[in-house]
């Protein structure tokens, strides 16, 4: 490449390019341009600021606690249990109510079970047998009730039977009761106390009315016009979820209680109110499915006179209630304090603390030392004679004190910028200490 080629390659590197604007005097294009600007402006004003309130600071880290207590009693008379009164200790599981609690509405009761040998249920596939070789000793029955003993038990002349097992005998009955056991549970009530806090704005509230009336919680019932009564009827919550309590209680189900706190904290705290919604969380349409409903088993254990343990097995059907809380707090005034009012710099300085390094503190100390020297000059008078006289007095007095002169009274403290520096009390003269070094600094400044 020749010399001319190198110049052609290198010289454009030093060119400077700038933009050139062409103003088109076209009304259609200009109108389209302004309409586009107006659309963007309307989007920002209407959607971002008015609808979505983008000017507000939000806090979504809601802190919440839930306490639940169920009340109500029921009376039953069955062949398995006889006459029995049911209270909250019998039908509420777990007894320590939190954000999830379960209310028993129906039961399959198998009383007086003892550890013994008996036949497995016929509807268990792994328990079916034709001879003893089909029942391997010590093998647990899959989804069954016990461990195989090695014998096949057949009824009469039947060719098929079930394996004998070591288990809690007799095994649980399969059929469900035809009648709902605790139909009265529809009238039971539950106390749901919800306390929330938005930590970013230090705002707290609860869904219980702040009242000194002791009978309020004993008589009130929640409805849309009484949001701060935390007493809910079970039947009403199931109905608000779109289900029938008597139908749901037969095989069980799950109800979700949603508490929403969507609060505009620029308004009065009384405007921050809970909003409730109720929904059925299990599949209410899967009535014929083997997995429909909600149930679990538990047992109560006893000992007879001989000390032999026995138990009553219960398969409980019921309704589980899940309390779910969420919310959002929005606040605008913090933004106003920091940026828009006349003394915004003062509030901003208090809200955000600036911490500087040690070298900045050293520079400030030197600046304040010079400043202190100038103020000493103002205190003792001007001119070389005054300063020399003060220096001579300092050398003669013990510890450099001048009890008869007015000087700056200094001290140390934590400044707003995070430095620990000596801080003279500007404008106030009083008795204190002054050093020869300060006077020498002042003489240096004057020269």
From TrEMBL:
GO biological process: what's one of them? Answer: response to ATP
Identify the GO cellular component terms for this protein: plasma membrane; postsynapse
Protein's UniProt keywords contain Protein biosynthesis: no
Looking up InterPro entries in the UniProt record yields: P2X5_purnocptor, P2X_extracellular_dom_sf, P2X_purnocptor, P2X_receptor, P2X_RECEPTOR_CS
What keywords sit in the KW lines? ATP-binding, Cell membrane, Disulfide bond, Glycoprotein, Ion channel, Ion transport, Ligand-gated ion channel, Membrane, Nucleotide-binding, Receptor, Transmembrane, Transmembrane helix, Transport
Q: What is catalysed by this protein?
A: Ca(2+)(in) = Ca(2+)(out)
- Entry binding sites for ATP: 69-71, 189, 295-297, 315
Instruction: List the subcellular locations.
Output: Cell membrane; Membrane
Membrane topology designation: Multi-pass membrane protein
The membrane spanning regions, by residue number, are: 31-50
Assign the protein's first listed, main location to one coarse class. membrane
Any idea what job this protein has?
A: Receptor for ATP that acts as a ligand-gated ion channel.
Task: Give the PANTHER family listed for this entry.
Answer: P2X PURINOCEPTOR (PTHR10125), P2X PURINOCEPTOR 5 (PTHR10125:SF12)
Q: Give the record's subunit note.
A: Functional P2XRs are organized as homomeric and heteromeric trimers. Homotrimer. Forms heterotrimer with P2RX1.
Protein name in UniProt: P2X purinoceptor
Species of origin reads Chrysochloris asiatica
Q: Which taxonomic lineage does the organism of this UniProt entry have?
A: Eukaryota, Metazoa, Chordata, Craniata, Vertebrata
**Protein's gene:** P2RX5
């Amino acid at each position: 490449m020749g010399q001319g080629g190198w110049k052609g390659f290198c010289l454009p590197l030093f060119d400077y390019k700038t933009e050139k604007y062409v103003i088109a005097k076209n009304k259609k294009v200009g109108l389209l341009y302004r309409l586009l600007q107006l659309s963007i402006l309307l989007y920002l004003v209407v959607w971002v600021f008015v609808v979505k309130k983008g000017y507000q600071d939000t806090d979504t880290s809601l802190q919440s606690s839930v306490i639940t207590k169920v009340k109500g009693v029921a009376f039953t008379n069955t062949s398995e249990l006889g006459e029995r009164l049911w209270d909250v200790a019998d039908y509420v599981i777990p007894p320590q109510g939190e954000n999830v609690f379960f209310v028993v509405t129906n039961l399959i009761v198998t009383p007086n079970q003892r550890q013994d040998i008996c036949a497995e249920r016929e509807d268990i596939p792994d328990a079916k047998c034709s001879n003893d070789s089909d029942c391997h000793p010590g093998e647990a029955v899959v989804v069954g009730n016990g461990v195989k003993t090695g014998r096949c038990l057949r009824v009469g002349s039947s060719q098929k039977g079930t394996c004998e097992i070591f288990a809690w005998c007799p095994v649980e009955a399969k059929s469900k009761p035809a009648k709902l056991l605790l139909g009265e549970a529809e009238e039971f009530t539950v106390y749901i106390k919800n306390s929330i806090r938005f930590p970013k704005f230090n705002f707290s509230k609860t869904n219980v009315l702040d009242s000194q009336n002791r009978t309020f919680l004993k008589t009130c019932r929640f409805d849309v016009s009484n949001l701060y009564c935390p007493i809910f009827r079970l039947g009403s919550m199931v109905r608000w979820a779109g289900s029938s309590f008597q139908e749901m209680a037969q095989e069980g189900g799950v109800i979700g209680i949603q508490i929403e706190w969507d609060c505009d904290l620029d308004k009065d705290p009384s405007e921050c109110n809970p909003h409730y919604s109720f929904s059925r969380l299990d599949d209410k349409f899967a009535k014929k499915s083997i997995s429909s409903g909600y149930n679990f088993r538990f047992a109560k254990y006893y000992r007879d006179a001989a000390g032999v343990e026995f138990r009553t097995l219960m398969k409980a059907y019921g309704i589980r209630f899940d309390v779910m809380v969420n919310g959002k707090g929005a606040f605008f005034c913090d933004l106003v304090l920091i940026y828009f009012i006349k003394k915004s710099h003062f509030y901003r300085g208090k809200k955000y603390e600036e911490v500087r390094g040690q070298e900045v503190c050293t520079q400030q100390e030197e600046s304040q030392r010079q400043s202190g020297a100038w103020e000493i000059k103002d205190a003792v008078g001007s001119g070389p004679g005054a300063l020399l006289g003060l220096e001579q007095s300092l050398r003669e007095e013990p510890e450099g004190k001048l009890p008869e002169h007015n000087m700056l009274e200094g001290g140390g403290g934590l400044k707003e910028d995070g430095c620990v520096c000596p801080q003279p009390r500007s404008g106030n003269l009083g008795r204190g200490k002054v050093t020869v070094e300060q006077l020498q600094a002042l003489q240096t400044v004057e020269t």
